[in-house]
Amino acid sequence: MSKPIATCVLGVGLSGLTFHVPFVLALKEHFALHSVLERNPTEEGGSVKRRFGVSVKIHRSFEAVIADPEIELVVIGTPNDTHYDFAKASLTAGKHVLVDKPVTPTSAQARELYEIAKSKGLVLYAYQNRRWDSDFLALKKLLSLPETDTQSLGTVLEFESHFDRYRTSLKGTWKDEARPAAGLTYDLGAHLIDQSLALFGRPDKITGFIQNIRGIGSLNVDDWVCYLIRFIPPNTNSVRPLDPQFTIHLHYERGPARPYPVTAILRAHILSARSSQVRYLVRGTRGSFTKYGVDVQEDQLKVIPAPENILEIQHGKEPESLWGSLETVQADGVTFDRTTWPSEEPGCYASLFRNLAAAIREGADLLVPWRDAQTVIELIELAHKSAQEGKTLDVPQLV
């Protein structure tokens, strides 16, 4: 058994205490919480001691972190505009890095970090934890069904993914400020785009509609986002611009991998006045999938008594009241069956950390490739440009 990875978590606010520290503490066979960066602890032992009753070394400056030779892994859960500088300095100091989404404010910075990590043989990992949401795992299972299965949606035509909320006031945090990588596009949009990439790969075109819809705080900080991303089958020469009021299914030459075009509609609305928010709407040639509510892990992590609770069988398990529903057409093409599609597999953010440890100690492949994290930022940049120019843009294809 290999030695646990000596880990330092930067930031002990919501991100650090909810999404990082509990996993480092719980997965003792993989990690050891060596230290945290907390510039002004208000009590002896700091925030980690107060929250989990565990005493760890406290660094009061980032310079002290990168100068500490015992630290092998730096976990970056600080404000978005610090991610690039902290990740670059950590990699340069010879430390592996796990960085919260959005990984950087610009795609050029994301490419630079990759080159540094590659040159030094270090692991650079993007914290795209929502690939392990229970409902996303359930959706992937549904989309993997063979078309012969009676519950299959057939070939996907449209994928609609939401992170909607109803919030009339500002939160009063750095996320409300006009800083690099601030706003709903970088915050929730990074998750929505990443899930779309995991399902369908890199898109061909993108249309973005981005604005500050509430008109409060800095008008440069967006709080309403809608992306229309068109995935075009191979051998397609052209596509009409997408209209934000409806979806147009254009027919192209059939290709071996994708017989129909797919439209991914990704939305985050801050003034969605609903008691139960839509999460997914997926339309296929033989049926549709509808899902309400969000994964339960974040709410669980905020209140768990001890990190070990993460490893319990019920952690991440979605209640039946949140399971999705299917409508699939029968052979007659007229009659529909209505069934429940269960989120049977619990959500498991711990899987990301286990993969991170395997990458560091054993050279395992990353389940969230850095190229995807880089593409997320590139698409956010293109979405902003699309919104500013009022037109659909081509997404450059990788060689």
UniProtKB/TrEMBL annotation:
Keyword Oxidoreductase: yes
This protein's record includes keyword DNA repair: no
Xref: InterPro entries: Gfo/Idh/MocA-like_OxRdtase_C, Gfo/Idh/MocA-like_OxRdtase_N, Gfo/Idh/MocA_oxidoreduct, NAD(P)-bd_dom_sf
Domain Gfo/Idh/MocA-like oxidoreductase N-terminal: 8-125
Gene Ontology molecular function terms on file: nucleotide binding; oxidoreductase activity
Gfo/Idh/MocA-like oxidoreductase C-terminal domain location: 151-394
Keywords, alphabetical: Oxidoreductase
Superkingdom as given in the UniProt entry: Eukaryota
Pfam families documented for this protein: GFO_IDH_MocA (PF01408), GFO_IDH_MocA_C (PF02894)
PANTHER family from the UniProt entry: CONSERVED EXPRESSED OXIDOREDUCTASE (EUROFUNG), CONSERVED EXPRESSED OXIDOREDUCTASE (EUROFUNG)-RELATED
Family: Belongs to the Gfo/Idh/MocA family.
Name listed for the protein in its UniProt record: Oxidoreductase
Protein species of origin: Leucocoprinus birnbaumii
Lineage: Eukaryota, Fungi, Dikarya, Basidiomycota, Agaricomycotina
